[in-house]
Specification:
Layout lengths: L2 H15 L3 H6 L4 E2 L10 E2 L20 H6 L3 H24 L35 H16 L11 E5 L13 E2 L3 H8 L1 H8 L5 E4 L3 E2 L2 E2 L4 H10 L4 E3 L7 H4 L7 H11 L12 H6 L5 H17 L19 H14 L1 E5 L12 E5 L7 H4 L12 H8 L3 E5 L19 H9 L3 E7 L27 H12 L4 E6 L12 E4 L7 H9 L13 E2 L17 H4 L4 E3 L10 E9 L2 E8 L5 E10 L10 E10 L4 E7 L7 E2 L5 E2 L4 E7 L5 H7 L4 E6 L1
Helix pairs in contact: 1-12, 4-5, 4-13, 5-7, 13-18, 15-18
Length: 689
């Protein structure tokens, strides 16, 4: 413990000793009234910063988190969250000046979401860094470092790893759902990212999930809380919002709010997002708890606030409001969008040669949609560049726009007939040289229960296909015989079911998304995003949505049914890897751009362990994004985490079982489909440890 932390410990103990029991309890509610006589201001713990300072007015809007994962660029992710923390501090400073202590005005941000995107139907999967524990941990660590800053004595913001743990849908039943998971899957898949954020990034907060895990509510699970203790967690634990109420209303593990409050505080939940902790005094008076767990929780909560400088008289991180949504920050958003967009198919039509084009038809419900840029948990931008606007700004010829159809209803106008925009779309197509069809989902039908209101499954997807209205539109456009480029905005895997000339997955690319797309379409830059999730062909061939076993889930366990693999994404060039070598947990590989265009590429290293405890397929163990000019060669050095050479047995124990492993390096996974789609083979060496 540093000298400053020792001094703070004394300060906190002295402060807590002056409080009444009622005052201590009040400081553990997410909406805390403060203690005026002790100089403690009111404070609301609830803030969001998933891909920008959310729900607090205008701020820079970055690509949704799943798009950030597609960049495979930890330096960029850290830079982005540094921007977010700058804007958050600036907003906080201004709010404090006018006495605004309300929700979404504080410094404790419930970001990042590091749950594993195990099933493509989950609506909130867009908030995550994908399906791989290693990629998730590296991106999550970068996000936390960006948010919390590098001042060893003072937190810039307090990040929060959520939702602890084993949480990834279904949304409709999350409040009472019991996720049954083996110790192997728990420790191999669901917990590693949380462990890395606690141990390596020193994340200040951890948020419990709504669901139960093997019969224990996540916000009061002795098994999960013990994991945090083992990892040396030194921050505050907060419940998901109204999750403690679920103890008695949904899980039926307790019979009243008083019992739920007692259960949560004794387990180690420090802050209650919700109002159940209003019953802590009743629990105390009824003898269900003594004062010690209340005192301990209050210490943890106040410790975080002191680390943030909230009780200091001096200014911390005195950033001007003028930086919010400034030109430099928007440039970072544009860079993230450029690097996140994934080219899934290209028969040679891309990049477009504008010298040969006079008219482009931009068609589809996502073409001029701001929602298609945002995703959920989003700020508002002071200016958006939609996909249509990006193409209009970039192309010197004629752009014809047609909406084509409603996002998911059978008609755009309520008083019209079904298919009321198809004929206009066909007219646009017939009078153009090429069609750019902009389809997909948005946060109204894909997201969190309560936020997304689709008529199917509370924000989750019923399948992997586009809504019927959009399928009909694509079929009609394909039938025209015109060259067809499909651009899909969605936070998850989509099978468009159409044989287009090119397919682009743009995720929810942020306020600069239209500009980034246009730059890629016309070859100003090469696409370079890689899939952080597996794109399956058919959801009906997946395990049941409520089955939390990893069998036949994600690239590490999948057996067929794959449309596009994890780690896949095309560029406008070709990059070859050679001379892979390994020594003392370090891999080196040479990469050369053998194609005709400059490009970014993601060098990926996978490991295969043949012991019976290992995952059946390979697993990602290292990656690095690199820029290569035409003909350029670079040597890449990758440090490999020692854990990558371990496996987890059925009891949940992680250790080294093998002495020999296979290492693969390439621009994709070392599987037949990936290599076929990329037109590039991975190289392999055998290594011993």
């Amino acid at each position: 413990m540093s000298k400053i932390e020792e001094e703070r410990k004394e300060e906190i103990n002295a402060l807590i000793s002056e409080m009444t029991l009622e005052e201590k309890v009040s400081l553990m509610l997410h909406e805390s009234p403060g203690v005026e006589r002790l100089g403690i201001k009111p404070y609301n713990w609830w803030n969001e910063a998933l891909h920008g300072v959310a729900r607090a007015g205008y701020a820079t809007v970055f690509p949704q988190t799943i798009g950030l994962a597609a960049t495979f660029d930890t330096e960029l992710v850290q830079k982005e969250y540094e921007v977010i923390s700058d804007e958050a501090r600036a907003k906080y400073n201004e709010a404090q000046k006018v006495g605004d202590y309300g929700q979404f005005r504080g410094l404790t941000f419930w970001t990042p979401n590091i749950n594993i995107f195990r099933d493509p139907r989950w609506g909130r999967g867009q908030e995550t860094f994908g399906e791989d524990p290693y990629l998730t941990s590296r991106m999550g660590v970068a996000a936390v470092k960006g948010l919390q800053g590098d001042d060893k004595d003072n937190l810039k913001l307090a990040a929060c790893a959520k939702h602890f743990a084993v949480h990834s849908g279904p949304e409709e039943t999350r409040h009472g759902f019991n996720a049954q998971v083996s110790e192997k899957d728990l420790n191999e898949t669901y917990l590693p990212a949380f462990e890395r954020l606690v141990k390596e990034a020193k994340v200040e907060g951890v948020m419990g999930a709504y669901n139960a895990v093997n019969g224990e509510p996540s916000c009061a699970s002795s098994h999960l809380m013990e994991k945090l203790s083992q990892w040396g967690f030194d921050g505050y634990f907060v419940s998901d919002c109204w999750a403690i109420r679920d103890f008695h209303e949904a899980h039926k593990i307790t019979s009243s709010a008083v019992e739920s409050a007692a259960m949560a505080i004794k387990a180690g939940c420090d802050v209650n997002c919700g109002c159940v902790y209003e019953h802590l005094l009743e629990a105390y008076n009824e003898g269900l708890i003594d004062e010690e767990p209340i005192r301990k929780a209050c210490i943890h909560a106040m410790r975080t606030r002191i680390r943030l400088g909230m009780l200091d008289s001096k200014e911390h991180f005195d950033l001007p409001y003028s930086i919010v949504s400034c030109k430099q920050h928007k440039a970072v958003s544009l860079e993230a969008a450029q690097k996140s967009i994934v080219l899934l198919k290209n028969d040679g039509i891309l990049p477009l040669d504008e010298k040969k084009l006079t008219t482009i038809a931009v068609i589809g419900p996502e073409a001029d949609s701001r929602l298609a840029l945002e995703g959920n948990y989003t700020p508002k931008a002071d200016r958006y560049i939609t996909l249509l606007e990006g193409i209009q700004d970039r192309f010197t010829g004629r752009v014809i726009f047609a909406e084509g159809c409603h996002l998911y209803r059978d008609r755009v106008s309520q008083i019209s007939l079904a298919g009321d925009r198809i004929s206009e779309a066909l007219a646009a197509a017939e009078n153009s040289d090429v069609i750019v069809a902009c389809v997909g989902l948005d946060s109204t039908i894909e997201g969190e229960q309560g936020d997304a209101g689709n008529e199917y499954s509370s924000g989750d997807k019923p399948d992997l296909y586009l809504p019927e209205s959009q399928q009909q539109l694509l079929s009609a456009l394909k039938a025209t015989g015109k060259p067809l480029i499909v651009v899909c905005t969605a936070g998850s895997a989509i099978n468009t079911l159409v044989d287009a000339n090119a397919v682009i997955h743009a995720w929810y690319p942020g306020s600069e998304g239209g500009k980034a797309l246009a730059q890629i379409l016309f070859g100003d830059i090469s696409p370079s995003g890689k899939l952080p999730v597996t794109f399956y062909k058919n959801a009906q061939l997946l395990p049941d949505f409520e089955d939390y076993s990893m069998k036949n889930r994600t690239y590490r366990y999948a057996q067929g049914n794959i449309l596009y693999p994890f780690g896949y994404g095309l560029t406008y060039s070709s990059v070859e890897c050679s001379n892979l070598a390994y020594s003392d947990f370090t891999a080196t590989v040479e990469v050369k751009n053998t194609g005709s265009a400059a490009t970014d590429e993601v060098v990926q290293v996978y490991i295969k362990d043949t012991c019976e405890q290992a995952v059946p397929n390979c697993k990602l163990c290292g990656f690095e994004r690199v820029h290569l000019e035409k003909g350029e060669m670079k040597k890449i050095t990758l440090s490999l985490d020692r854990d990558m050479f371990t496996a987890v047995d059925e009891s949940g124990e992680r250790k080294v079982f093998s002495s020999e492993f296979s290492l693969f390096a390439g621009v994709c996974q070392p599987d037949e489909l990936s290599e076929q789609l990329c037109g590039s083979k991975c190289i392999k060496i055998n290594v011993k440890i």
